């Protein structure tokens, strides 16, 4: 039933951006024709937040908590963000990884209300008309996915929409982007997930994914429609499969304000965490041998930024490359392989480098760790438990402070669990994970939180920066500036026992610092209008949306 009240503004109760629910004052109730439509008591936002957290706590499972919070978001956006802000560390795993993965898998079953835009291939002639149907005219940030590589759980088809919705809620919570100026988009080009194709409740276009020629033409039409309708918007590509992710980024990065979060955001957060780790380990990144398990777009994106950092620290490009080792499902990337993309080939080793290793076929991760003094081991492979006890002990036998980041999401896909890494290395490992894990227990002191090395430290701040600075492009230097600013905020720089990345409670202040660094770089790169630091700070402050009524 639609509540219409008697005043000219009576529908306000149903408008998630304007409603205050029971917090409407007596005067507001009279003004908006709401008298009698609400119970008599007038509550405060703080009362409502406490009541909602009570509801969250009473739910039996995290998936139910996710469903409750998503419903709250659709009902009252100010209250939703006030609830999240009241306890960011507890809220984050409920609206983001790992719970959002379950929300994506069960998207059709859990469907309640529409949010964002669903642009399906059969409607390809009407892309611009559909964009015009967006709920709010002005948009600062779009997050778009085609649902093909959702976290580490593969093709979720239309269910992938959970990710743009979740990411954009963090743009607001952390980056302060007005929720009415965000737009989640799902490009529905079919699904190759047989369970979804067989699911009678599946809400997407029930069809196999279209072929690449049609796919790239569809993406081009989508980008052209965005350019025509929203020429200044930030367009974030999220969770595209590796064969599409890098080509799309290459095609559009110099044409509009855009970036790929999995490639560039992940690289920036990893480099930021590595800055803290280098400080504690007392070694420069450029002096390390760095191994990446996983040669997808995320892994290669991280290694590209690692390589660039080594060059900035004084290594020649060839020296830097020789210190990077990338292993995929077949084994080490080597130049004699014929199954590598150009981006992967940039990290391939000459087979001569490993000729004396006495290994049958391609060396695997264990072989690399056995033959190389690995200082940094990173995982973006989706391979649960791939950092085995033997591998980690072998690495830790050769370095004082092994840096081990199992970064795959959600939790079940992590290459190792922090407690195991901690025990196998007698507490020497410097650890960061992609999804949240419990803190490490210490016999002689308080528990130590595990840093969550997730691109959520980066994308909201980048969105805040480009919106405030009116940037027209996202340059590599801007992403490097984000990484450095995050690294500079690492608690480990001041306390070797502290986590490598800032606490969630501080994440909004950290985002302001990252946003300033990124905005400054945008000005320096000539992709944003001239502005002083003070002007940029003012613009960042002015851009931040406040969830108070
Ligand atoms: N922490 C964070 O912020 C982020 C984490 N991620 C996570 O990174 C993971 C990967 O993402 P993405 O790069 O896009 O995905 P892809 O699926 O494209 O890449 C996975 C890579 O890992 C390789 N791989 C798979 N299984 C194994 C195995 N058993 N041993 C060795 N290598 C293996 C694959 O090889 P092959 O192609 O030959 O099968 C491929 O190179 C996901 O879990 C995602 O959630 C992503 C972005 C951000
Ligand atoms: C965090 C993220 O973007 C991913 O796992 O894909
Ligand atoms: Mg992602």
TrEMBL record:
Record Pfam families: malic (PF00390), Malic_M (PF03949)
Binding site for a divalent metal cation: 238-239, 262
UniProt keywords, alphabetically: Metal-binding, NAD, Oxidoreductase
Residues of the Malic enzyme NAD-binding domain: 263-523
Keyword NAD: yes
GO molecular function, one term: malic enzyme activity
Cofactor note: Divalent metal cations. Prefers magnesium or manganese.
Catalytic residues in the record: 96, 167
Enzyme Commission number: 1.1.1.38
UniProt xrefs under InterPro entries: Aminoacid_DH-like_N_sf, Malic_N_dom, Malic_N_dom_sf, Malic_NAD-bd, Malic_OxRdtase, NAD(P)-bd_dom_sf
Reported cofactor(s): Mg(2+); Mn(2+)
Keyword NAD: yes
SUPFAM superfamilies: Aminoacid dehydrogenase-like, N-terminal domain (SSF53223), NAD(P)-binding Rossmann-fold domains (SSF51735)
Domain (Malic enzyme N-terminal) ranges: 73-253
Similarity comment: family membership: Belongs to the malic enzymes family.
Name this protein carries in UniProt: Malate dehydrogenase (Oxaloacetate-decarboxylating)
Organism: Actinomycetospora corticicola
The organism's taxonomic lineage, starting at the top: Bacteria, Bacillati, Actinomycetota, Actinomycetes, Pseudonocardiales
């Amino acid at each position: 039933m639609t509540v219409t009240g008697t005043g000219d503004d009576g529908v306000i109760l149903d408008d998630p951006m304007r409603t205050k629910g029971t917090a409407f004052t007596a005067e507001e109730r009279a003004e908006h024709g709401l008298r009698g439509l609400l119970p008599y008591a007038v509550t405060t936002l703080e009362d409502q937040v406490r009541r909602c957290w009570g509801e969250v706590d009473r739910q039996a499972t995290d998936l139910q908590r996710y469903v409750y919070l998503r419903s709250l978001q659709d009902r009252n956006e100010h209250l939703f963000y006030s609830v999240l802000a009241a306890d960011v560390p507890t809220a984050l795993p409920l609206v983001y990884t790992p719970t959002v993965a379950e929300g994506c898998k069960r998207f059709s079953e859990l469907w309640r209300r529409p949010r964002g835009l669903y642009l399906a291939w059969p409607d390809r002639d009407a892309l611009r008309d559909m964009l015009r149907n967006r709920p709010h005219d002005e948009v600062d940030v779009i997050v778009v996915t085609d649902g093909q590589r959702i976290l580490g759980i593969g093709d979720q088809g239309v269910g992938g929409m959970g990710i743009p919705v979740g990411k954009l809620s963090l743009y607001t919570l952390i980056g302060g982007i007005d929720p009415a100026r965000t737009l989640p988009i799902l490009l529905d080009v079919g699904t190759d997930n047989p369970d979804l194709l067989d699911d009678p409740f599946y809400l997407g276009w029930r069809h196999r994914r279209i072929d690449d020629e049609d796919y790239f033409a569809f993406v081009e039409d989508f980008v052209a429609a965005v350019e025509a309708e929203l020429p200044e918007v930030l367009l974030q590509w999220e969770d595209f499969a590796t064969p599409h992710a890098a080509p799309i980024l290459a095609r559009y990065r110099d044409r509009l304000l855009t970036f790929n979060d999995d490639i560039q955001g992940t690289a920036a957060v990893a480099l930021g965490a590595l800055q803290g780790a280098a400080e504690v380990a007392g070694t420069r990144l450029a002096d390390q041998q760095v191994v990446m398990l996983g040669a997808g777009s995320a892994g290669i994106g991280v290694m590209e930024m690692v390589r660039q950092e080594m060059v900035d620290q004084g290594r020649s490009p060839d020296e830097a490359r020789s210190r990077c080792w990338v292993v995929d499902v077949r084994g080490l990337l080597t130049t004699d392989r014929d199954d590598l993309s150009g981006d992967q080939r940039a990290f391939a080793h000459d087979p001569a480098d490993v000729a004396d290793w006495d290994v049958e076929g391609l060396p695997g991760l264990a072989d690399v760790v056995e033959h190389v003094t690995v200082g940094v081991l990173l995982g973006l492979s989706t391979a649960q438990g791939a950092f085995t006890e033997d591998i980690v002990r072998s690495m830790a036998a050769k370095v004082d402070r092994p840096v081990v980041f199992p970064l795959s999401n959600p939790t079940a896909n992590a290459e190792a669990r922090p407690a195991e890494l901690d025990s196998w290395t007698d507490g020497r490992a410097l650890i960061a994970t992609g999804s949240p894990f419990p803190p490490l227990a210490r016999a002689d002191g308080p528990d130590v939180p595990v840093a969550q090395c997730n691109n959520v430290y980066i994308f909201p701040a980048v969105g805040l920066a480009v919106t405030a600075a009116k940037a027209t492009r996202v340059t590599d230097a801007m992403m490097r500036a984000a990484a450095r600013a995050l690294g500079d905020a690492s608690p480990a720089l001041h306390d070797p026992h502290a986590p490598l990345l800032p606490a969630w409670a501080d994440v909004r202040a950290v985002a302001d610092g990252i946003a300033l660094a990124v905005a400054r770089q945008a000005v320096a790169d000539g992709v944003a209008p001239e502005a002083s630091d003070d002007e940029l700070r003012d613009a960042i402050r002015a851009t931040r949306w406040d969830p108070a009524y």
